[in-house]
Amino acid sequence: MDSQDKDKDIRVYDKTDFKDGNTPSKKERDRWKNTSFIASFDFAVTGIWTALKQERNMRKHFFSTFLAIFCGLIFQISKTDWLFLLLSCFLVITAELFNSSIENVVDLAADYQFHMRAKRSKDMAAGAVLVISCFALVVGCFIFLPKIWAFIFG
């Protein structure tokens, strides 16, 4: 991205920009719009990759997911167990994506200043991740504790 593109990445419109019926060109409006399935998919993958790069907890959740899948393969869990295991793992990752998104939007809206409403919003989003993570922990315990117990004592 050259320096000319950097100026185009951020454009804040004011009411005066539209006072004479002027609107941004279609090319400018469509710059960040999903114009095809491939573009939409690319934006989604970019969002996941960004979360992995920037969010420490997202990396922990992905590591936990891979660890759970590895343990599922080692202990040869049933199809039903796989369903619950993968559901709980992907719910946690999805909740973390929502949490990260909410945190970024709140930071942007609050102009990176402390506001009690912003804090409450971010805390609630983090609480949702905690609730889903507790569900995933319970599912993991139901699936793996009997198998670990049998492996150690059986």
From TrEMBL:
Q: Where are the transmembrane segments?
A: 61-77, 83-102, 123-145
> Molecular function (GO) terms listed?
ATP binding; kinase activity; metal ion binding
Q: Which cofactor does it need?
A: Mg(2+)
Any matching Pfam family = DAGK_prokar
Topology in the membrane?
A: Multi-pass membrane protein
Q: Where is the active site?
A: E96 (proton acceptor)
Q: Where is this region: Disordered?
A: 1-28
Q: Where does ATP bind?
A: E55, E103, K122, D123
Picking any one GO biological process from the record gives: phospholipid biosynthetic process
Annotated a divalent metal cation binding sites = E55, E103
Q: How is the cofactor bound?
A: Mn(2+), Zn(2+), Cd(2+) and Co(2+) support activity to lesser extents.
Keyword list, A-Z = ATP-binding, Cell membrane, Kinase, Lipid biosynthesis, Lipid metabolism, Magnesium, Membrane, Metal-binding, Nucleotide-binding, Phospholipid biosynthesis, Phospholipid metabolism, Transferase, Transmembrane, Transmembrane helix
Identify the residues that bind substrate.
E96
Query: Keyword Repeat, does the record have it?
Result: no
What is its subcellular localisation? Cell membrane
Superkingdom per UniProt: Bacteria
Can you supply one Gene Ontology CC term for this chain's record? plasma membrane
Gene3D superfamilies the UniProt entry points to:
1.10.287.3610
Q: Which family does it belong to?
A: Belongs to the bacterial diacylglycerol kinase family.
Q: What PANTHER family has UniProt attached to this entry?
A: DIACYLGLYCEROL KINASE
What this protein is called in its record is UDP kinase
Q: Which organism is it from?
A: Lactococcus hircilactis
